[in-house]
Task: inverse folding
């Protein structure tokens, strides 16, 4: 069962908001990747980002670390995808 807003501690809310803000910043980097990566790769990374954002939004009341985890995972996927695309596929600005 979901907790009422009065049952959520300020620390829980702070961690959730920081995680959602970081997820938003990662989203900016993902969608700005059109300068480096082809459109198909940005669409795939955008789908991963959107799925992680929906998951974090649905889970933030149960776990204060869910948004932080989503932001870190999507950021790592983005960094790996751009670096591998540069090395293996020759993506460059």
Result:
């Amino acid at each position: 069962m979901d907790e009422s807003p009065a049952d959520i501690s300020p620390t829980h809310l702070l961690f959730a908001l920081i995680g959602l803000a970081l997820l938003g910043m990662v989203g900016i980097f993902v969608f700005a990747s059109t300068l480096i990566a082809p459109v198909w790769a940005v669409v795939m990374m955008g789908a991963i980002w959107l799925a992680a954002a929906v998951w974090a939004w649905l889970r933030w009341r149960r776990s204060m670390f869910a948004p932080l985890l989503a932001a870190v995972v999507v950021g790592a996927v983005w960094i790996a995808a751009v670096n591998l695309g540069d090395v293996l596929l020759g993506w460059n600005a």
